[in-house]
Write a structure and sequence with these properties.
Mean pLDDT: 90
Radius of gyration: 19 Å
Low-confidence stretches: 1-12, 20-38
Structural class: mainly beta
Number of strands: 34
Number of helices: 2
Helix content: under 10%
Length: about 425
């Protein structure tokens, strides 16, 4: 079952700022390289119905996604019941139709207005799923893990953080992947007792979640590395995680780390494209693996001109290759990729790009046999905002072995209200 999640908070947030600024990367202006993969089309995007208690301005999105078949998916995100009251949400698709969904119950001690969000979803079986994210206890941001079985979701739990975690600062779980029911790995970030953001990994074995562990960062990490792991892939029981860290002030770098026989090594810095600037603002948002030695990850970085550009990097025979730029649509000012999933013959990456009018639009790019095709705009649902007010972003994609891919995200409607969207390529 495909399992996908969120682009993280730190470097990805910096890239989002670059997307708004929108300087144009040269490769995007030149047009996309490679050969487009034929044989499938995008269906009309739809608004995913909101829970009945949603606010008129729902600030809704879907960030995590897992699909057991072409028309059966579970997604997670958030929505508002009133201004400032954000609830974590699960939405399900059955027979190709999305239901309204429902809010998750946060751990004991959560604020009445929990400011909660699901970042990622994993479903190791058709009837059992795990969701991770964050919530507020009224003072600080905390992490949660929730499980659903047969459509019924238990109250979320709060996992134990590393022993050097600060009791008075925030934490977040951003990605999750499961080998089987009761055997999962979640990744994210936390603040240590010095107030420095560190990356963490928490493992479930035999149905019990252990204490999270701090990741050993590359040796060139800054004293305050602002580190996070955004996603994890676990083929054949061995896991590979990706994220970002800083080597100096405002100098973000992408990283990856491999687990072997239950032990996580030191993270590796990813070599960026030659067009990367000194302040790279680089991150890896998501990873998919066919084996522990063969993976594809996507994300973004800042070019020498200061533009935000999409990137991809492969793990081949256990060795990380230099990342490459994935060109956005012609005349795109900036672009970023947030999720990738593969079928039997190709891979599909999704994200967002900014066009010449400064409108942000849904982005999709196909990869086949090592070549990236022409980037495509994925249209928002009917009634979306127009002109420079248009905003759409695809957070997650899941492809089945048959080649059908489902993607979810967010868009602004004609009243400039954020709503959740879903679309299918088949």
């Amino acid at each position: 079952m495909a399992t996908l999640g969120l682009a993280g908070r730190g470097a990805a947030a910096a890239l989002a700022g670059l997307l708004i600024a929108g300087a144009a990367p040269a490769a995007a202006l030149a047009g996309a390289a490679g050969v487009a993969v034929p044989g499938a089309t995008w269906h009309k995007s739809v608004q995913v119905p909101l829970p009945s208690n949603a606010n008129a301005d729902p600030n809704a999105d879907l960030r995590g996604l897992a699909c057991s078949s072409a028309k059966s998916c579970v997604a997670g995100g958030g929505y508002q019941t009133k201004p400032g009251d954000q609830l974590a949400r699960i939405a399900t698709e059955s027979g190709g139709k999305w239901a309204r969904g429902f809010s998750l119950r946060m751990p004991s001690g959560a604020s009445a207005d929990p400011d909660a969000e699901v970042n990622a979803v994993a479903c190791p079986t058709r009837t059992y799923c795990v969701a991770v994210g964050y919530y507020s206890d009224g003072f600080f941001q905390r992490t949660f893990i929730a499980t659903g079985s047969g459509g019924k979701w238990a109250r979320a739990i709060r996992p134990a953080l590393p022993k050097n975690a600060s009791a008075s600062q925030g934490a977040d779980l951003i990605g999750v992947r499961c080998h089987a029911r009761g055997s999962c790995v979640a990744v994210g970030s936390y603040a240590d007792k010095s107030g420095h953001d560190q990356a963490m990994i928490v493992t479930e074995a035999r149905g019990r979640w252990g204490r999270a562990a701090e990741l050993r960062l590359p040796r060139n990490a800054a004293a305050n590395p602002e580190a996070e792991l955004n996603d994890v892939g676990c083929p054949s029981g061995t896991c590979v995680a990706v994220g970002s860290y800083q080597t100096g002030p405002s100098t973000g770098q992408a990283m990856a780390v491999i687990e072997s026989k239950g032990t996580w090594g030191r993270a590796t810095e990813i070599s960026l494209p030659a067009s990367a600037g000194k302040k790279q603002d680089a991150f890896l948002a998501h990873i998919t693996c066919s084996s522990p030695r063969s993976c594809l990850a996507v994300g973004g970085y800042a070019t020498k001109s200061g533009a935000a550009a999409a990137l991809a990097v492969t793990l081949s025979k256990g060795k990380w290759q230099r990342a490459i730029e994935v060109a956005g649509p012609r005349h795109a000012r900036s672009a970023g990729l947030y999720s990738v999933s593969c079928s039997a013959t190709s891979c599909l990456a999704v994200g967002t790009y900014q066009d010449a009018s400064r409108a942000n639009r849904g982005l999709a790019v196909l990869e086949s046999h090592g070549k990236w095709g022409s980037a495509m705009q994925v249209s928002a649902p009917s009634g979306a905002a127009t002109g420079a007010e248009h905003y759409a972003l695809l957070y997650a994609v899941a492809c089945t072995s048959s080649g059908t891919c489902t993607a979810v995200g967010t868009y602004n409607d004609g009243s400039n209200h954020s709503r959740a969207m879903a679309t299918v390529r088949s």
